[in-house]
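Review form for a predicted model. The reviewer records the input and the model, then writes brief findings.
Reviewer: anonymous (R2)
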Amino acid sequence: MTRSTPTGPSLTIRKKVEPGSVAPVYQADFGRLGMAICFDANFPEVWKNLAAQGAKLVVWPSAYSAGTTLQAHALIHHFYIVTSTWTRDCIVYDITGEEMLYQKSRDINVTHVTLDLDRGIYHQNFNLPSGTSCSKNIPKTSTRNAGSIASSGLSSGPTAPE
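Model under review:
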Protein backbone atom coordinates (compact mmCIF):
# COMPACT_ATOMS: atom_id res chain seq x y z
CA MET A 1 0.00 0.00 0.00
CA THR A 2 1.20 3.51 -0.78
CA ARG A 3 2.20 5.62 2.20
CA SER A 4 0.52 9.01 2.25
CA THR A 5 2.26 12.15 3.44
CA PRO A 6 0.76 14.30 6.21
CA THR A 7 -0.62 17.58 4.88
CA GLY A 8 -1.87 20.97 6.07
CA PRO A 9 -2.28 21.55 9.82
CA SER A 10 -0.75 18.14 10.64
CA LEU A 11 2.64 19.55 9.65
CA THR A 12 2.49 22.52 12.04
CA ILE A 13 1.68 20.73 15.29
CA ARG A 14 4.40 20.27 17.88
CA LYS A 15 4.45 16.48 17.83
CA LYS A 16 4.85 15.57 14.17
CA VAL A 17 2.36 13.27 12.48
CA GLU A 18 3.90 10.18 10.95
CA PRO A 19 2.42 8.62 7.80
CA GLY A 20 0.91 5.19 8.27
CA SER A 21 1.33 2.20 6.04
CA VAL A 22 -1.96 0.38 6.58
CA ALA A 23 -5.65 1.23 6.91
CA PRO A 24 -6.86 -0.90 9.82
CA VAL A 25 -9.90 -3.19 9.79
CA TYR A 26 -11.20 -4.58 13.08
CA GLN A 27 -13.57 -7.43 13.82
CA ALA A 28 -16.43 -5.97 15.87
CA ASP A 29 -19.39 -7.92 17.25
CA PHE A 30 -21.55 -6.57 14.38
CA GLY A 31 -19.06 -7.07 11.52
CA ARG A 32 -15.78 -5.87 10.00
CA LEU A 33 -15.11 -2.18 10.77
CA GLY A 34 -12.59 -0.19 8.74
CA MET A 35 -10.99 3.13 9.58
CA ALA A 36 -9.80 5.84 7.21
CA ILE A 37 -9.22 9.52 7.96
CA CYS A 38 -9.43 12.86 6.18
CA PHE A 39 -7.07 12.97 3.19
CA ASP A 40 -7.28 9.15 2.80
CA ALA A 41 -10.32 9.96 0.64
CA ASN A 42 -7.89 10.88 -2.14
CA PHE A 43 -5.95 7.62 -2.17
CA PRO A 44 -7.83 4.77 -3.92
CA GLU A 45 -5.29 2.25 -2.58
CA VAL A 46 -6.50 2.91 0.98
CA TRP A 47 -10.09 2.00 0.07
CA LYS A 48 -9.02 -1.01 -1.99
CA ASN A 49 -7.03 -2.24 1.01
CA LEU A 50 -10.03 -1.80 3.33
CA ALA A 51 -12.17 -3.86 0.94
CA ALA A 52 -9.47 -6.55 0.64
CA GLN A 53 -9.52 -6.88 4.44
CA GLY A 54 -13.29 -7.43 4.35
CA ALA A 55 -14.56 -4.11 5.74
CA LYS A 56 -18.35 -3.86 5.72
CA LEU A 57 -18.46 -0.43 7.35
CA VAL A 58 -15.82 2.32 7.15
CA VAL A 59 -15.79 5.17 9.66
CA TRP A 60 -14.24 8.35 8.25
CA PRO A 61 -13.52 11.32 10.57
CA SER A 62 -12.30 14.38 8.68
CA ALA A 63 -11.96 18.14 8.54
CA TYR A 64 -13.98 18.25 5.30
CA SER A 65 -16.82 16.38 3.57
CA ALA A 66 -14.87 15.10 0.50
CA GLY A 67 -17.56 15.93 -2.05
CA THR A 68 -18.61 12.85 -4.01
CA THR A 69 -15.33 10.98 -3.52
CA LEU A 70 -16.72 8.87 -0.67
CA GLN A 71 -19.79 7.98 -2.72
CA ALA A 72 -17.49 6.52 -5.35
CA HIS A 73 -15.56 4.48 -2.76
CA ALA A 74 -18.79 3.11 -1.27
CA LEU A 75 -20.09 2.14 -4.72
CA ILE A 76 -16.85 0.61 -6.00
CA HIS A 77 -16.11 -1.44 -2.88
CA HIS A 78 -19.68 -2.06 -1.63
CA PHE A 79 -19.26 -0.98 1.96
CA TYR A 80 -21.09 1.56 4.07
CA ILE A 81 -19.24 4.79 4.92
CA VAL A 82 -20.15 6.91 7.95
CA THR A 83 -18.59 10.37 8.16
CA SER A 84 -17.92 12.72 11.05
CA THR A 85 -16.53 16.12 10.08
CA TRP A 86 -15.53 19.48 11.52
CA THR A 87 -18.07 21.06 9.19
CA ARG A 88 -20.73 19.50 11.43
CA ASP A 89 -22.34 17.45 8.73
CA CYS A 90 -22.97 13.77 8.92
CA ILE A 91 -23.29 11.65 5.81
CA VAL A 92 -23.93 7.93 5.59
CA TYR A 93 -23.42 6.23 2.24
CA ASP A 94 -24.82 2.77 1.55
CA ILE A 95 -23.15 0.04 -0.50
CA THR A 96 -24.55 1.51 -3.74
CA GLY A 97 -23.04 4.95 -3.07
CA GLU A 98 -26.44 6.48 -2.29
CA GLU A 99 -26.79 8.89 0.62
CA MET A 100 -28.77 7.19 3.37
CA LEU A 101 -28.49 10.18 5.65
CA TYR A 102 -27.36 13.75 5.26
CA GLN A 103 -27.61 15.99 8.26
CA LYS A 104 -26.07 19.44 8.70
CA SER A 105 -26.43 21.66 11.72
CA ARG A 106 -24.67 24.44 13.59
CA ASP A 107 -24.96 22.33 16.73
CA ILE A 108 -23.48 18.95 17.48
CA ASN A 109 -25.40 16.25 15.64
CA VAL A 110 -26.42 12.98 17.19
CA THR A 111 -28.23 10.63 14.90
CA HIS A 112 -29.29 7.02 14.55
CA VAL A 113 -29.29 4.93 11.40
CA THR A 114 -29.64 1.17 10.96
CA LEU A 115 -27.23 -0.51 8.53
CA ASP A 116 -27.76 -3.97 7.06
CA LEU A 117 -24.20 -5.32 6.92
CA ASP A 118 -25.47 -8.55 5.34
CA ARG A 119 -26.75 -6.67 2.30
CA GLY A 120 -24.95 -7.42 -0.96
CA ILE A 121 -24.94 -6.54 -4.63
CA TYR A 122 -25.24 -9.41 -7.07
CA HIS A 123 -24.88 -9.48 -10.83
CA GLN A 124 -26.39 -11.93 -13.27
CA ASN A 125 -24.35 -12.54 -16.41
CA PHE A 126 -26.78 -12.07 -19.31
CA ASN A 127 -23.98 -12.73 -21.82
CA LEU A 128 -24.01 -16.50 -21.23
CA PRO A 129 -25.67 -18.64 -23.91
CA SER A 130 -29.26 -19.61 -23.16
CA GLY A 131 -29.50 -22.62 -20.86
CA THR A 132 -25.98 -22.16 -19.40
CA SER A 133 -25.79 -22.01 -15.63
CA CYS A 134 -23.05 -20.62 -13.41
CA SER A 135 -24.69 -21.96 -10.27
CA LYS A 136 -23.78 -25.66 -10.41
CA ASN A 137 -22.01 -25.58 -7.04
CA ILE A 138 -23.98 -22.81 -5.35
CA PRO A 139 -26.30 -24.08 -2.58
CA LYS A 140 -29.99 -23.34 -3.05
CA THR A 141 -31.37 -20.55 -0.88
CA SER A 142 -34.79 -19.24 -0.10
CA THR A 143 -36.20 -16.48 -2.30
CA ARG A 144 -38.64 -15.43 0.39
CA ASN A 145 -37.27 -11.86 0.63
CA ALA A 146 -36.17 -11.33 -2.98
CA GLY A 147 -39.29 -9.54 -4.29
CA SER A 148 -38.88 -6.77 -6.85
CA ILE A 149 -35.50 -5.75 -5.44
CA ALA A 150 -33.88 -8.93 -6.79
CA SER A 151 -35.13 -8.16 -10.30
CA SER A 152 -33.12 -4.94 -10.31
CA GLY A 153 -29.92 -6.80 -9.47
CA LEU A 154 -29.94 -5.79 -5.82
CA SER A 155 -30.65 -8.13 -2.97
CA SER A 156 -31.20 -7.61 0.72
CA GLY A 157 -28.45 -10.18 1.32
CA PRO A 158 -28.14 -13.90 1.77
CA THR A 159 -31.20 -15.70 3.03
CA ALA A 160 -31.40 -18.80 5.18
CA PRO A 161 -31.84 -22.18 3.47
CA GLU A 162 -35.36 -23.58 3.62
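Findings: The chain has two domains: 8-104, 118-162.
Further findings: The first strand starts at residue 25 and ends at 28.
Recommendation: see findings above.
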